[in-house]
Design goal:
50% of the residues lie in helices and 5% in strands. The protein has a 5-stranded mixed sheet with strand order 3-5-4-6-7. The N terminus and C terminus are likely disordered.
Length: 536
Amino acid sequence: MPRSDTDHDDSATIDLPDPSAGALPSSARSPYGDDAPPARPERQFEPGAIATLLVALCCVAGAVFAGRSTADFAKHLDGQVHAISCSVMPGETAQLGASGCKTAMMSPYSSVMRDQVWGGVPVALPGLALFCFLAAIAFYFTWMPGRSRRESGWLWLATLVPAATSAVFANIAANELGTFCTLCVGIYASSAGAFLFAGAAFFMAQRGEGPLPFGRWLLYCAEGVLAVAAVGYVWMAWVPSERESLKGCGTLVQRKAEPGILVSLPRNEGATPALMVIDPLCPACRAFEVRLEQSGLRPRLGRDLLLFPLDSTCNWMVKTSLHPGACAISEAILCAPAEADKVLGWAFKEQERLLALGKSDEPALRAELSKTFPAVATCLGSADAKAKVNKSLRFAVVNALPVSTPQLYVGDTRLCDEDSDLGLEFALGRLLQTASAQGADIEAEAEAPAATSPAAAALGADAGAAKAGSGADEGAAKAGDAAPKPKANVPGKPKADVPEKPKADVPEKPQADVPAKDPAPAKDDAAPGAAQEETP
C-alpha cells in the first residue's frame, strides 16, 4: 500500500542531545577524548605590531641605500673612474664627475683598514649587514605571539647603533667634508625612522612577566655580530691583496738637478726622499695634498717640489693655459725657497680666486704676490726667475715625465695615478716600505766589508805572511846597509853612542866645551863645524 507524504517512521527519528542536559554522550565527543589539545586562538595584531612592522620597512630601506653605496665603492676597486649612483630614487641614472657622493667616497671616512687592504673596507658594508639583520628580527617580532616590551626594548636598543653612527657621519659630512652624499642621507633617514618607530613599539607593547631573558638577548647580539663579521670576511677574501700598480708606474732617469731647481719642503729627520711634481693652481694637486695629509703618511716623506705649471705663458708643452697664473706663482716659489711652504699653502687656499685673477689680469696677480710676500718682490718676473722655471720644465723633459699633475715619486718610483685616491694609504705605504728596505740595504753594503770565501781568505793569509817575510828581509837588508861601516878609526866621524849633534845655528865652541865620552881623540879630529855640515 503506498505511503502518503504525511506518513513517517518514528524509528528513523534522530534525537539530538540537549546541551542543557549536561555532558555530551560518548558518541558526540571528540575522537581525541578529554585530552584533546585546546583550540588555537586566533592571531591578533597586538598593540605596537604596526610600529614594529614600520621598523622592519625602515631597515629594508637602509639596506637598499647601504647596498648601492657598497656597490659603487666596489666598482672603483679597479682604480678606474666610474659613475656613482648618487640618488635615493630607484631608476635614476648614475652621475659621473664631482658630486657629494664622490667627495664622500674619496674621503678617508668612507672606509676603514685602508693600510691593510687596497681601498679598505667600506663603512657601508657593515651597515648593509646590520640593516638586513635588524629587518629580519623586526619582521619576526611583528608576528611573534606574546610579544612584550622585552622584545621591543631590545629592538629599540639595537636600532640605536645605526642611529648613533648616522649622527656621527652626518656631523662629519657637515663640518669636515662640507657636502652631503644623497645615498648617505637616505641611510641617515632610515636609521632615524627605525629608531623612532622602535621606541613607539616599546611603549605600545605589553609588559612582560617573569625574569628578564638575558640569554635570549645575548643570542640576538651574537647573531648580529656574526652577520657583520661574516660579510666583512667575505669582502676581505674577495678583494685582491696584490696589484700590478703596487710596483709603481715608472722611475726617474735623473734624480739630481741643478741647484735652485728643486724646492725642499720642511721634513722630519729620517724621512724617505720623495719628489712631488705639482702645479700650484691645480685643483687635483690641492685635493691630493689634502688626502696625503689625512692619510698620516706625509711626515714620512722628505719632499722636494718640481714646479710644473700647466700655463702656456711659460710652458711650451701645453697649447692652452689650463691654470692661468700658475707661471707667476711658480716663479714666486722659486724666488723664495724658504717661504715655499707658505706660498704654496696660500695658493691652494685662494685657488679659485687666483685662477680667475690670472685669467683676467695676470699683472694684478703678480702685484698681489709681491704685496703678500715681500721677499719675492725684486725677483718676480726677472730673467733669473723665468730661467729657473724653464730649467724646471727641462728637468721634466729629461726624465720623460707625463704632462700632468700631481705626480709623486718615492725614491725613484712613481706612485700610480689609480693609487692616489682610495688606495693611497695601502699603495704609498708599500712604496715607503720598499724604499726604506732599499736604503737599508745600500747602507749595509757600504758599511760592511766585502765577504770572502775560505779559500780566498787562506790565500790572502799566505800572501800576507809572504809579504811580511819579504818585508822583514828587506828591513834587515836596509838595516844592514844603514849600519855604520867599520871605520871607527877614521877621524871626523861621530861614533854611534855620541849624543844628539848640535844644531846648525849653534855657534862654534871650543872642543873642550863639547861633551864627549872620549874627549882626547876629539881634539885630534877635524873642526866641529865640518862635522855639523855633513849631518843630513
